[in-house]
Amino acid sequence: MSWIREGELTIIERFCGNIIKAGPMPKHVAFIMDGNRRYAQKCHVERQQGHSQGFDKLAQTLRWCLNLGIREVTVYAFSIENFKRSKEEVDGLMDLARQKFSRLLEEQENLKKHGVCIRVLGDLPLLPLDIQELIAQAVLATRNYNKCFLNVCFAYTSRHEISNAVREMAWGVEQGLLEPSDVSESLLDKCLYTNNSPDPDLLIRTSGEVRLSDFLLWQTSHSCLVFQSVLWPEYSFWNLCEAILRFQMNYSALQKARDSYMEERRRQQMERDQAYVTKKLQQEGFASHGDSQRRWTLLQKCTAMREERIQGFLQALEHKREDFFERLCTVSA
Amino acid sequence: NDDCLLTRGKKYSSARWRLDGRALQKLPVHMGLVVTEEEPSYADMASLVVWCMAVGISYVSVYDHNGIFKRNNSRLMDEILKQQQELLGLDCSKYTVEFANQDKADQVLNCQSALKVLSPEDGKADIVKAAQNFCQLVAQQRRTYTDLDVNVLDNLLSSTNGFPDPDLVLKFGPVDSTLGFLPWHIRLTEIISLPSHLNISYEDFFSALRHYAACEQRWGK
């Protein structure tokens, strides 16, 4: 399969893999696959070659992840900022995408066999229409597979993703599906392109750069960040193990920080809800600290109503997104 | 006019600080000091803040994921003022700090730098607040959802009012994570890690700045 290299680990790799798997393992790893162009320069080949080798390395890395039991991977394939590159390079990258997505569609049996769900995340209308159509086909064809998940960020930046999520919530308010007070961190989570995935446990960036470059900023606030100096096309199984070891060393500190953050978030939501109930009771002419039974009942009612609104909104959002892909598929049919 | 001061056993002239800053190819405009250790040290953080300002960094933010510095803001400010006195002596007025989220207006003489003390509520929670405000406007039919884009949302955020995005974050401690520090604002921020902020030396601080000055930024191109 072109997107996931066939093959098993070597004996030594399997041995080390088993040692690593004795500790906590990331369930979802994100990669900033940086260094294709520097690699091309180093090897005195065309940039396009560098990107092509980069893709091959992606296929190999996905295989290693699956062998290690890591079932979800998100990669930064093309940033909205990358449109600023020379026309030649951008066209080359678009051609590479055409090639790879077409190949993917030819291998549908394999995708089904391995249960690979492909998602493409980004501002897809920015892409050439034929690529949007290929993407739509790939996404719809694999949407129900669930053995492993590959999320490809294409025409993506985190700020666009977050803004889009806020825009969707505003759309929900405009449609009468949501109240402004329904807007919360957890609702925003569910409006991101990554809403079907847990946050990445581990983010790896290659080529020595130590920045996030507008990738999954919201989702990686409490992830283990590992910056490695190796250039992406030269990434090895050992580099991956090294990153996982760093994850393991950070595991309990990050778990603790995440738990206390979620606790604080719950506490603040509870505070807001209590304040709302107090105001409501005052409006209805009841003493704000009076009947605790009445308070509790009102709190339950408000929470249930909010839940209902949110479910309705999320369904409408899901519908809108499916519609977008389905319309692209009928165009190409 | 060089005033020699004893700082942790070394003699530094106050003029030296600015020279150090100018010697670098580039200085961050906004430096984030992020502590991932459980027990923050007010004295060490104060030193870092004062060094940042002495060297010519215009905006400094301080962060810990438990919000300890923010809750104990005045203690940190007092420590900073004390260190300013100790490290910069008579030249104090030239390096006076504008406390961006405090009302110590009497301290503001000759503003060279601005400081913010931040916590997780300035991160995702601030984005959510901006989103709620926008949705209120939509509910009142004063805006439509298509009005919201990256720039509009950026302008609605308030946790770093007046500050540019951080160019550089110095992250102290063993945890390999930003632990919720300004997720929106750090999209292009260089993140340099140091093992600890406890008993941090000026040399270690400055070598991180040297490291930053050497890095190449391609901006996606």
TrEMBL record, chain A:
Keywords per UniProt: Endoplasmic reticulum, Magnesium, Membrane, Transferase
Swiss-Prot/TrEMBL catalytic activity: n isopentenyl diphosphate + (2E,6E)-farnesyl diphosphate = a di-trans,poly-cis-polyprenyl diphosphate + n diphosphate
The keyword Ribonucleoprotein is assigned to this record: no
Biological or metabolic pathway of the protein: Protein modification; protein glycosylation
Molecular function terms from GO: ditrans,polycis-polyprenyl diphosphate synthase [(2E,6E)-farnesyl diphosphate specific] activity
Topology of the protein relative to the lipid bilayer: Peripheral membrane protein
InterPro entries: UPP_synth-like, UPP_synth-like_CS, UPP_synth-like_sf
Main location: endoplasmic reticulum
GO cellular component, as recorded: dehydrodolichyl diphosphate synthase complex; endoplasmic reticulum membrane
Subcellular localization(s) per the UniProt record: Endoplasmic reticulum membrane
EC number in record: 2.5.1.-
PANTHER family reported in the protein's UniProt record: DEHYDRODOLICHYL DIPHOSPHATE SYNTHASE COMPLEX SUBUNIT DHDDS (PTHR10291:SF43), DEHYDRODOLICHYL DIPHOSPHATE SYNTHASE FAMILY MEMBER (PTHR10291)
HAMAP family membership: ISPT
Subunit-level organization: Forms an active dehydrodolichyl diphosphate synthase complex with NUS1.
Summary of the function given for this chain in its UniProt record: With NUS1, forms the dehydrodolichyl diphosphate synthase (DDS) complex, an essential component of the dolichol monophosphate (Dol-P) biosynthetic machinery. Adds multiple copies of isopentenyl pyrophosphate (IPP) to farnesyl pyrophosphate (FPP) to produce dehydrodolichyl diphosphate (Dedol-PP), a precursor of dolichol which is utilized as a sugar carrier in protein glycosylation in the endoplasmic reticulum (ER).
UniProt name for this protein: Alkyl transferase
Automatic annotation (TrEMBL), chain B:
GO BP field: angiogenesis; cell differentiation; lipid metabolic process; regulation of intracellular cholesterol transport
Enzyme Commission code: 2.5.1.87
Alphabetical keyword list: Angiogenesis, Developmental protein, Differentiation, Endoplasmic reticulum, Glycoprotein, Lipid metabolism, Magnesium, Membrane, Receptor, Transferase, Transmembrane, Transmembrane helix
Cofactors: Mg(2+)
Pathway linked to the protein: Lipid metabolism; Protein modification; protein glycosylation
Protein family membership: Belongs to the UPP synthase family.
Entry function: With DHDDS, forms the dehydrodolichyl diphosphate synthase (DDS) complex, an essential component of the dolichol monophosphate (Dol-P) biosynthetic machinery. Both subunits contribute to enzymatic activity, i.e. condensation of multiple copies of isopentenyl pyrophosphate (IPP) to farnesyl pyrophosphate (FPP) to produce dehydrodolichyl diphosphate (Dedol-PP), a precursor of dolichol phosphate which is utilized as a sugar carrier in protein glycosylation in the endoplasmic reticulum (ER). Synthesizes long-chain polyprenols, mostly of C95 and C100 chain length.
Protein name: Dehydrodolichyl diphosphate synthase complex subunit NUS1
Taxonomic source organism: Apteryx owenii
